[in-house]
Each structure stands twice: as structure tokens, then as C-alpha cells.
Amino acid sequence: MGDDALLDLQERLRRFRPVPQLGGPAFAGAELVVEPALLRRLVEHWRDRFDWRTQESRLTALP
């Protein structure tokens, strides 16, 4: 990932704004719903703690 792409990703993660959980009849029985709290924690992790460069190095080292 180039520096510009990583900077863009970091900026997008900083701008992330959660949406309220959707519900109602249209979502009854929905199996692929991500809880807003979980999504918020994931974004915070990717934004503040995830080492993108380390993971990139691990992936590029694979045969």
C-alpha cells in the first residue's frame, strides 16, 4: 500500500461516523447485521492500534 493510500485510509477512518442501528420489519430475521458498537470498536482499532505496515510486510513476505 502506498503512502498516499495509507494516509487516505487513515483519514477515512478518522471521519467515520456511526449510523443508528436499523430495525423494523424490513430487517426482521436479518443475519448479516453488524452491531453499531462492534463496528465502532473495529474502526477505533483500525484507526488507533492496528499496525498497517507490519501486516503489509507479513503479507508481502508470503510466497
Tell me the domain tally.
Answer: 1
Task: Tell me the Rg in angstroms.
Answer: 16 Å
Measured by DSSP, the beta-strand proportion falls in under 5%
Helix content: 55-70%
Give the helix/strand class. Answer: mainly alpha
Give the beta-strand count.
0
Features:
63 residues, 3 helices, mainly alpha
Layout of SSEs?
Layout: H1 3-15, H2 36-48, H3 52-60
Notes on the protein architecture:
The protein is an all-alpha fold and about 60 residues long. The chain has one domain (about 1-15, about 30-63). It has 3 helices and no strands. It has helices at about 5-15, 35-50, 50-60. The chain is elongated and about 45 Å long. It starts with a helix and ends with a helix. The mean pLDDT is about 85.
How would you sum up this structure in a few lines?
The chain has three helices and no strands. With 63 residues, it is mainly α.
